[in-house]
Specification:
Number of strands: 0
Number of domains: 1
Distance between the termini: 9 Å
Radius of gyration: 16 Å
Strand content: under 5%
């Protein structure tokens, strides 16, 4: 089982998780120091993007005979990122936090972690499917 490792370096999935962790930590710090704010419109957009990715992935998996064992790591990361983005955006839409709230900063960091993981893992999944591994 490979995780989109077309060359002999770190797999694409590991790179995407590392980059997403960095983005999530920076977002949490910026939210805690009130350098960024999260508006409901932004949350609805992220929610819509995640639901759109979920719909597209379900549609393509139903229409195409795809061997999921080849890209199992990328696919698992992709689906985890979709569900994490949906869950954290719903939490932030349902509960309003103060600008310098620690819990709000942590959940915002998680939201941006999952969203950046969604974007990077979709690239990994496309890379894995195109490499044929």
């Amino acid at each position: 089982m490979t995780t989109s490792n077309c060359d002999c370096t770190l797999s694409c999935t590991v790179k995407s998780v590392i980059a997403s962790i960095i983005i999530g930590v920076l977002a949490a710090i910026f939210r805690f120091t009130a350098l960024i704010t999260i508006t409901p419109a932004f949350l609805w957009v992220l929610f819509g993007i995640a639901v759109g990715f979920l719909g597209i992935s379900l549609l393509t998996s139903a229409l195409r005979n795809f061997n999921a064992e080849d890209c199992c790591g990328s696919l698992t990361t992709f689906l985890t990122a979709i569900l994490g983005t949906i869950l954290t955006s719903v939490i932030l839409l349902g509960i309003t936090f103060a600008a310098t709230s620690v819990i709000g900063a942590i959940i915002t960091g998680l939201l941006l972690f999952f969203f950046s993981l969604l974007i990077t893992s979709s690239v990994c999944l496309i890379n894995c499917r195109s490499c044929g591994e």
